[in-house]
Amino acid sequence: MRTLLFMLLLVTISSCASDDEKPSDDNTLIGKWQLIEQLSDPGDGSGTFQPITSDRTIEFFSDGTIISNGILCFMSSEVGDKESGMFFLTTDTNTDNQFDGEIIPNICTSRSARVFFDLPVNGNLILWYQCIEGCGQKFEKIN
Length: 143
What we know:
An 8-stranded antiparallel beta barrel has the order 1-3-4-5-6-7-8-9. The protein has one helix at residues 2-14, and strands at 31-40, 50-51, 57-60, 65-68, 83-89, 101-105, 115-118, 124-129, 135-141.
């Protein structure tokens, strides 16, 4: 009887689904996104995303590449020359990574210019840039 209870407990634990709402793949990421909000924290954690009007876009492709109509090395809402890069999802659940993936821009001269992203859970994609204070951009899918 004790063995049966142990086996039942083991099966129950191993069959539990995660209640993490994040997608398990990049299907929701593929497509074109437009900048709608920007976060610049003054350094005390009080910053919030604020609406912004910009024609800035970023497009994710199923082959792991991205194209943006502005610079990717640092946070900017300006539109300019097209820049490209690669993206990958963080798939190792054993790492202490708080982001869903990373963008590696092709043009940045410093590897420290890293861009991280969170997959859309509530419809918006968030890009996080390396800043002393928190800074990020929120994008809405346009196709």
